[in-house]
Amino acid sequence: MDPSLPNKILESYWGYKEFRPLQKEIILTILEATDTVALLPTGAGKSVCYQIPSIIARGTCIVISPLLALIKDQVSLLKKKMIPAEFISSEQTPDQQISVFNKLKNNELKLLYVSPERLLNKTFLEISKDIEISFIAVDEAHCISEWGNDFRPSYQQIKKFREHIGYHIPCMALTATATHKVLSEIIKKLDLTNAQVFKKSFKRENLSLQVMNIHDKLGQIERILHRYKGSGIIYCRTRNETKNVYETLKRKGFDVDFFHAGLPAYEKIKKQREWTDSDSKVLISTNAFGMGIDKENVRVIIHLSPPYSLENYYQEVGRAGRDGHLSHTFLLWNEQEFSDIYSSLTQTISSKSEYSKILRYLFSMFSIVPNELPENIFDFDLNLFQQRTQISKNKIIPILEFLHNSSVLQWKFEPSESLLKINFPIERLDTNFYGKDSIILEKIARKITGVFSYQIKFDEKKLAESLLIPTHDLHSMLVKYNQTGDISYIDGNKQKILFLEPRNDQIFLGKYWDKFQAIQQNKLVKYKELEFFIKNKKYCRMRLILGYFNEKSNQSCDKCDVCCESKIEGDSYLLEILNFIKKEPRSREDIYAEFQNIPFEKIHEYLQELISENRIKALNFNTYSI
Predict the structure, then answer these.
(1) 18: helix, coil or strand?
(2) Are residues 195 and 271 in the same domain?
(3) pTM
(4) Which one of 199, 228, 261 terminates a domain?
(5) What is the pLDDT of residue 26?
């Protein structure tokens, strides 16, 4: 192969003449059919590392990605560049999926994006035998690690898929955040052979990392947004917080919007598009937003509260300044909040007796005896289970999640859309066969396309609203006709449990307990690491982060709050504040906003000192002048 070919493709499709550091080396390695790991920080251009070799290599690259929204964005961008790419998802109709499969068989695609859940789908496995796969690209590969910050159990299926298609097909793993422990697990669980690991420095020269111990968080956010103009993200812990902060800032005239996982899909797309196209909008979001965003000019990132781990923190602040220009990040915290976080964390930690009790009650609830593996899918009532065990949901849920992640059982906790298929012949709608329900069933058939042929997802609340009937009445009718067999209905709001392994108390209370206990302890370790980082006032924050990711650095960033604090002595503070007031009378808010590296308490001390020395005077309660 001509070694200049990747550069020609880069310029032709992306408009750049030169690659970013390590990109070309990664591309050439996967083209040599060598398993490859790319550890590149957010904004370093990971997607190009598999997109360009997919164009050059024979066959189709299978891209495994965790988020459908991210998949859709990538495919849309590739199509605009006239690069043949498609995706397969459960949202598509069978006809749409068949169209994609036909393109695959005809060798018309260079990239196919799928979720990890799709990999062991029987139809997909059969199709994969008939297509030429160039290589596999595993995006967000840290999701495979139980020690990482975003574990997804479905990533465990990738190894089985590799076994199915053959290990002669190379694999590329890509991630922005991975400690040495997570990197080792990525290589092991993907079964990478003689993997070439490319790791770019995690140091970001253009990021100012500010950590502030503060009680008036909304006031501080206002001051930050007044001072630092441009596009930004404010991260909150809960959905309610995103809405509350949005309403407060909107009233104050800021260009803001909010985002969380509970919004309808069309609304998420609209909000993300408006934010991406804007140079000034600030999006207030949970950590559901941000993965894979393609926006270079994010100028400010604010964390209303500490995130869940240093990995989360660095991935989220890394979304700022992808254009290389100076960008500012702020993490707001206070002592009470840390105490609350630690308290809520410890309340999720179970003892072995609690773990054992939950497991035994789980099996007895469904009358499962030792060595039995039932085939039934059981309805699971979490409230009833909590009442029987007298153990808090904060402990039950992590154990069920662990058993789900360990493939002991499948457990669906989050409500989802329901499924419906009409089994009776369509001609029956022309009669009054179902009495007063006939009109409702006819309307349902008209509103849900394809419902006579396939199980179709639908939102019960929206459907009831469109039918002008109460949601409870619609639900009761669907349950009634499901029992008669006239329809096939699966209630998306019910939790379900399917057991995948026979009951074996010796293993579940032995090996699995040891593993669960280690995961619990890892949560506490991550908390302590984050606490040390936030409360630290001695070491450069960028150097601490680099050390966390096993990267040594002897240079300080000179931009974080710790570095700035060490550079300026008290006398310099006084002089700077005095010179600032000399220009014109300043309010206390003006001074707070100008000197954000100085704690509010210190600024108050310096103002009192300047007043006592008759160097400034207080015009009123809140304004100072010479």
Answers:
(1) coil
(2) no
(3) 0.71
(4) 199
(5) 97
pLDDT digits (tens, 9 = 90+) for 187-213: 999 999 999 999 988 888 899 999 999
Residue given tokens 């009123």 in the structure block: 620
Tell me the C-alpha distance between 491 and 161, whole Å: 30
Write the DSSP assignment of 382-443 as a string of letters: HHHHHHHHT--HHHHHHHHHHHHHTTSEEEE-S---EEEEE-S-GGGGGTTTTTTHHHHHHH
First to last CA, the chain: 72
Task: Say if residues 301 and 316 touch (Cβ distance below 8 Å).
Answer: yes
Q: What is the largest CA-CA distance in the chain?
A: 95
Q: Of 153, 180, 199, which one is at a domain's C-terminal end?
A: 199
Q: What does the alpha-carbon distance between residue 491 and residue 229 come to, in Å, rounded to a whole number?
A: 47
Give the CA distances from residue 198 to residues 23, 65, 172, 253, 456, in Å, rounded to whole numbers and listed in that order.
Answer: 9, 20, 11, 46, 44
Burial class (CB in 10 A: 0-12, 13-18, 19+), 348: middle
CATH code of 96's domain: 3.40.50.300
- Using CA atoms, how far apart are residues 150 and 303, in angstroms rounded to an integer? 18
432-484 pLDDT tens trace:
889 989 999 999 998 998 888 878 888 888 899 999 999 889 999 998 998 88
Cβ count within 10 A of residue 323: 13
- 373: helix, strand or coil: coil
Mean pLDDT of 489-510: 89
